[in-house]
Amino acid sequence: MISRLKVSIGQYSDRGSKEHNGDFLAALIPEDDSLETKGISCVIADGKDSCDLAAEASEQCVKSFLNDFYSTPETWSVKHSASKVLTAINSWFWSQTKSDVAPGMVTTFSALVLKSNTAYLFHVGDSRIYRLREGDIECLTQDHRINVSRNDHYLSRAMGIDHVVDIDFRTVSVQEDDIFLMTTDGVHDYISDGQIKLLLQGDDLDAQARTLAEESVRAGSPDNVTAQLVKVTSLPSLWVNEIFSRLAELPLPGRLDAGMHFDGYEIIEVMHASKAFQLYRVKDSESGEEMVMKTPPLDCEDEPACIERFCQQEWVGKRIHSPLVVKVLESAGKRRYLYYVMEKVEGMTLREWIANHPDPDIDEVIELTEKMIAGVRVFHRMDMIHRHLKPEHIMIMPDQGIKIIDFSAVQVAGISEIATPIGRNDLHGTMNYTAAEYLLGMAEDKRSDLFSIAVMVYEMLTGQLPYGNQFARNVNWRTLNKIQYQSAISHNPEIPLWIDGAIEKACKLDIKKRYDTFSEFLFDLKNPNSRFMRRHVPLVEKDPGLLWKTLAMVFFLSNLVLLVFIFLFDVN
């Protein structure tokens, strides 16, 4: 039985001794798969009295965050999703602050997102988030305020103060029975951490939140008082992710043959069969539509990591909707086996295109590169890194459009946050096309896919690889330093110097030395960069044939002079 993340929540908010309550709090516990892909969110905000619409600011900030956070793609990481949402909210607050409609919308903001076995904290202002664990209390946030005197201070950071907001972010581990406490300054400014710990007794979280607020008022708090308690009562299972579990329960189909009828499909042709996967051209028995079926490795039935990776491929494919990426289709009926179906794509692979174009037009190569980059950006906008780009995974269609047809090694930021004992770091890229940081088990980012694109550009122009066979041996820190880039001009003297320089920079082995963005790479492919024009390319790389011809001529002339000298010496 797979357990789910469960919490108990208690909360209380009151205007205290003030006329109006400018605090606001809320929590959201999803009832669908968002519980795993997005998590549980608890938010608290304190609208500042000095602004005209304090209560409106705090309420709108909390409600907008909860609504928009769960509207972001489930492939995005918690940090990416929350940062995008908070930036948008702050921009709107700032725009309203400068107008006459709602001047002065300023509020503190603290959010706790519980996902898997991790707590993600977002904080700006002087509200606080505490954690109580095994009798110890710890404040997890830092107040953003400047104290003028004992009773007088002002916020140095908050939502709506400036057009740019600097949000504190951190993650902490979560254990069962952890209690997270969120308070506004009307509470924690008037009761100490020790008093808070003593007041949090019993199982009634609502009563405890109310007690904290009332005690702070008795202690002399002149402010609104708000407290929210979140107790973790159950953590999710760490085995197969629940979002994949339904698929993973299906049996493997085994090897299929042409002519077989299988789960509502007719097997027309075996397109590819290997230890890694099988591809079949199939026809929907009911509609007659042709498509491609992919089945998992035949020997991965007892390998949870293998099954999880295969299930993730379908999950990823169904969340990407772009003409530049192959479409994963809904199955014809209820599935009895583990597989998925994709649209049938006509055309040739980039591998075939390279073989058919030994002397390609440079402008055509750049045009294809631009299309491939557009396809990769589809993944990046979804907070994914492809990690397995190579010529076999790029289809070029009759209209010269492209489609990326593989998801087997995609890293999904949102999924990577879900704890599991299943190994996810096994190498599933392809040597020579996979960035060095992936081979070395280091952190990757979008520049890892840039490396693969640059290698393919090099290969389109030269038919060779930028590092030759140097990756064939085991790659480690010691051997990596010995691997040298081979100028593309050594294989194709017609390549402009600046294009060779752009490719070399894009496929640097050190990720920090590559371009930061694909746009920079594209620009330098199309426009001569003066830095690359000053590069010195040795004659042996620029034109190896000319070098040997020159050396041969030098040796010939030297021998001729020597013969003349010997002849004259003998005559004398």
The domain count comes to 3
Report the CATH architecture of the largest domain.
Answer: 4-Layer Sandwich
Query: Could you report the average pLDDT, rounded to the nearest whole number?
Result: 88
Low-pLDDT parts are none
Briefly, what CATH class of the largest domain? Alpha Beta
Strand count, sense and closure of the main sheet? 6 strands, antiparallel
How much of the polypeptide forms β-strand, as a percent range? Answer: 15-25%
Q: Numbering strands along the chain, what is their spatial order in the largest sheet?
A: 13-14-15-16-18-17
Number of helices: 19
- What fold name stands as the CATH topology of the largest domain? Phosphatase 2c, domain 1
Overview of the molecule:
This protein has 572 residues and is α+β, with helices and mostly antiparallel strands. A 6-stranded antiparallel β-sheet has the order 13-14-15-16-18-17, with helices on one face. It is built from 19 helices and 23 strands. The protein has 3 domains: 6-234, Phosphatase 2c, domain 1 (4-Layer Sandwich), CATH 3.60.40; 242-343, Phosphorylase Kinase, domain 1 (2-Layer Sandwich); 348-537, Orthogonal Bundle (Transferase(Phosphotransferase), domain 1).
